[in-house]
Amino acid sequence: MRGRTLRAHHVVVVIVCALQHCAGWMSPTCRRCGGLRACGVRHAVWMTLLLWLLVISVRISFLSYSLFDWWLVFNFNSIQLRKQGETMSGRPEKGLYGNEEGQASAVPQGHSRRRARSDLEGNTDQPAATPIRVEEAQLRWTMCSIVRDILLDGETDISKMKLNDFLREHFGSRAAVEEEQNMEMWDFLESPDAFIKDQQLLEEISNLKDYQLLTDRRKLADGGVHYLEHWIEFKDKATVTPLARKKLNDALTQIQKEVARLEAEERAKRRAEEDVRQDTEEKTTKLEGFYESVYGAKWGHVLGFYDDKIWEDRMEVHEGKPSMSWTYKVEGITFEKDDGVEQFSPPRLRLMVLASEKGWPYSWRENKPIVDCYVNCEVERVWQIVERDLKDLSVTCSVYGSTLKQRLLVGTPGIGKSMNAGSYLLYQLLHYDAEKIQVVVHCFGEDVAYVFDKTTKTVTKYVGIEASESVVLSLSQRGMKGYIIYDVPTNEAQLPISFAPSTGWGTIVLASPKVRDIFEFVRQRVPHRIIMNRPDEMDVKAMCAWMTRDWTPQEQEKYWRMVSHQMLFLGPILRYIFDANDFSKRYDELVRVLRSIKSRDDAERLTHGGTKEWCTENPFYKLMCVKRKRGDFGTEDFKTDLISGHLADRSFPFVVKVFPLNEILGF
């Protein structure tokens, strides 16, 4: 202290540091010190200093300082803690928590190592680490985990370290190269012999653990192994070091154990729920009048045309089936809507509606029947593809065989796959040729199945997967041909094990990309995917026109303004935009998801959504939507994007905190 004068704020700083230290925190390292038992003498020194200051602090009036002075002292100390934390890696290092004895690395830990790590991590894009217990620091890997993160867990990332820093750290200054050859270690891997001629030194370098892991990362990246799921099918596992193999295999083992545990818990839960359900209701229930309601659903439609007077599209609501539907053209091995046919013929068909008095199976489970099934060009497109499957089969096979395509319908959660696409497929299959399709089974997970028998014109409800499998097998053995619509509920973690008979039956699974193992499901069963896009703004306006067809023009306009406003925030997600309460709850939920962006990987899932596979463990799928794209060999595939421009704007401040702006903009 200058002039050996003891000031009040000096005493406060020392007391604050002492109290923090004795509370278990060591300010210089921004981590837990381990308490009195772990720190020993250091605690005694701090406590002695504190007591001594309290005794000799005569004539020092702490109360004479303003609240601002006290705030300044505490804030200064917090800043020092944060500055220390900013030099820490985003991953826990060995010896970082608790007592450091027995945790020393095999690599020398000299001053050059600390300086190199500071230089390397000072520019990192990862957020500062938060001191937590070792048990809480254990990572829970997923199939979407980045291989780099798994290999670096508990290790040092030397990819951006300069070659000379690396050599001085491990071999001293004698091994340094010329400055023009002083490159980053990642680039050094391309041709080590070109920069270091000493073969003995090269051999010593190659034996270092950090270098081996970096080499493994390079090999795996060059081999297309970027995520843990890629490691499973990687053929050249023997080319990487045993340490890397162990890390990756351990991560897979952890996932397998966790999946097995979750599935066992889910099975136990379902058995318990089914036992309770069996005590209260019969497994089989005849639903009187429901077959007639669905089969005889009434048609309606909405036409749209541009009104020059109001400079926007107007909607006209009509009863009955439209005289013309949409036209589709073949693209690759699938269909796309032919917009050219409609270009010069307004008014254009915007929406078809099927009204079932008793509702549709999707709503029967909740005993709240939804009467109207909305059919836009995307829903009609799904039926056109399924119908072509049936026609192709009847042309190519004289006997109904096993060549009927198994389909997987994928789309953004909440756009109407279950209610609209599922219900419309059911209606069309009930009206399809009874000689080719006699039964339609509409399943909702493993809980409920509704069996529509076209020969007896009845609907039977079956509860439980065993009952559903049994009835389908029985119908098949009787020579009946059918089609299964399997709707995967939003709370179901995985896709079904198909119980469809091997011949004579078709299946379409309705699922969201967030369902676990969807890509493995595609790979093993090889179903043909159908990607369903979201409805567009005019589709939603046509739905509003139908809903409010009996309202006054003023009420219709007010309702449309509310829906269109909510659509700006959430996009055309039908589940949430037609009701103000549903909208508010969903929007608040998405804002909480945005605020949970904490790492570079989180940000990449939003800014590069189109290049990353959708994972169920990733909470950011709620912010994303599915868009159809053309896959290999003319098949259908999908990419992802944020559901609305508003959420893209809201996400930007959270993303730039963990992601460099020049990388976001592609510089």
UniProtKB/TrEMBL annotation:
Residues in Retrotransposon hot spot protein,C-terminal domain copies: 408-652
Coiled coil: 245-282
InterPro entries: DUF7578 (IPR056000), RHS_C (IPR046836), RHS_N (IPR046835), Trypano_RHS (IPR006518)
UniProt keyword Cytoplasm present: no
Region of interest (Disordered), ranges: 88-129
Domain named DUF7578: residues: 158-220
Signal peptide: 1-24
Annotated TM spans: 49-73
Domain of life the protein comes from: Eukaryota
The entry's keywords: Coiled coil, Membrane, Signal, Transmembrane, Transmembrane helix
The UniProt record lists the keyword Coiled coil: yes
Annotated Retrotransposon hot spot protein N-terminal domain residues: 291-393
Protein name, UniProt field: Retrotransposon hot spot protein (RHS)
